Fold:
Amino acid sequence: MEETGVARSYRAETLQEQQAAYDDWATQYEIDLCAMGYRIPAVMAAVATRFIPANTAPILDAGCGGGIQAEPLAMLGYGPITGIDLSEGMLEVARAKSLYQELRQMTLGEKLDFPDDKFAAIISSGTITPHHAPPKSFEELIRIARPGAPIIFSMRDDPAQEPEYPEAVAALAEAGLWSKVFSTESFYSMPYGEPEITHRIHVYEVT
Ligand SMILES: C[S@@+](CC[C@H](N)C(=O)[O-])C[C@H]1O[C@@H](n2cnc3c(N)ncnc32)[C@H](O)[C@@H]1O
Structure:
């Protein structure tokens, strides 16, 4: 059987392999994910309407890919939205949608080229996950979010999740840098393509 784009991205061992996987997949990514029944963008948009007040700006979409997450947010009137992603190919797909105020190539897990306290809300779907952005990505997201800003992210919770991710989330809460506001129930995020993968969406508020 031919390897899926999801499987290739979860096999990547280096940033270069990850970037190449998404550059190659970029124009086919949404077609594949929609066929897999990709649920995260709809669930996250619903969560956003509950925890991001209207007129909150600016918003960062961290690991925006081709922009599938910003679409429902823009439809709901959110913006301006800035997107960052590792893959230029994915950013190119996002650019064609004219949804974002700004789109920049940046690497989560490294220092981000934004000042402290810039964003009033941050979302991140499908990105801070094994073989993608590492657990320490959260530290920089907290730095560039304003005090009180919600950070809404998806996180795997199936048995193949790496424990370092929930451990990092808990350690930052213990250090008083953010506090938990809400988590969804666990749900099958790609039921027709990767039926063993589950996620929750979490909302944390920056201290
Ligand atoms: C599963 S896609 C999710 C994209 C989009 N948020 C969505 O929900 O469709 C994962 C994205 O993370 C990006 N990515 C992987 N590692 C990254 C890193 N360290 N920093 C920034 N982006 C990264 C990939 O290029 C890809 O666009």
Q: What stands out?
A: The radius of gyration is 16 Å.
